[in-house]
DNA sequence: TTGCAAATAT
DNA sequence: TATATTTGCA
């Protein structure tokens, strides 16, 4: 969190730009490999017929650092709480402008008319791929929330646990996508998300009931045991007590905490965690955030998150 | 609106 | 390759 504070407080307009951006918890400068150093020695490169890296001067390194800093600043200057698609759109437009200039500088007629996003993927060294992937058509139009393609939801064990709790609460009979979605009270979660997950979950429970055993892809489901109320077909999750009255299992209200975490050291090929802002109360808008924000449930467990996957050519 | 299977996307 | 999403149909 110290890093986070330092990063947030960093302001190039006022302070000493040569100041180290963060110090706490990070290796001392002496422990770091200089970026000017070539990682593959010339002899090794020639031995394996690897085309030698273009040597990096301090100027190159400084330029790259400044680019990184300015983009980080841009990210952090956004009000994370009020982050919305318009912000992202502006961000993307800005980036697109920058990239257009770059592409003009490196004029290549053969590329004329091709998709800039594909171009970028080929051209970028990879470190930009993850954030560039945010600026695709999924986010380009915020005029209609319905036409927005949501990032892929990752059903983490915690999110699945919440799902199970709600399904157990409702009982097998009442556990339909819409109701589950409402009771889960997870902002941004759609009926389709739930329907899809429910579909898979039912297949899993079916497999379990037929003593087939879990399949290799049932990792998530096996991590959370199937509640007894879901094993009895057709019975509601509401338990009948000795008086014959219905006793409703308590369903913990959803009170998430936002735990901001700077997205540092993300490399290409890795999935970028773009969590959805889970809210208390009725679902409101769907907020995309640039930085890694882990969702926690009331017991401190991380919840699910959305991630756009950096697309890779197949 | 729901459930399901298959196709598609990431 | 795994798995989430979409699609089409009943």
Automatic annotation (TrEMBL):
Domain of life according to the entry: Eukaryota
Compositional bias per record (Polar residues), positions renumbered to this chain: 208-224
Start-end of Basic and acidic residues biased regions: 96-123
Major location (coarse): nucleus
Domain HTH myb-type: 155-206
Subcellular location: Nucleus
Assigned keywords, A-Z: Nucleus, Transcription, Transcription regulation
Gene3D superfamilies, sorted: Homeodomain-like
Location of region: Disordered: 96-142, 208-248
Name the record gives this protein: HTH myb-type domain-containing protein
Biological source species: Datura stramonium (Jimsonweed)
Lineage: Eukaryota, Viridiplantae, Streptophyta, Embryophyta, Tracheophyta
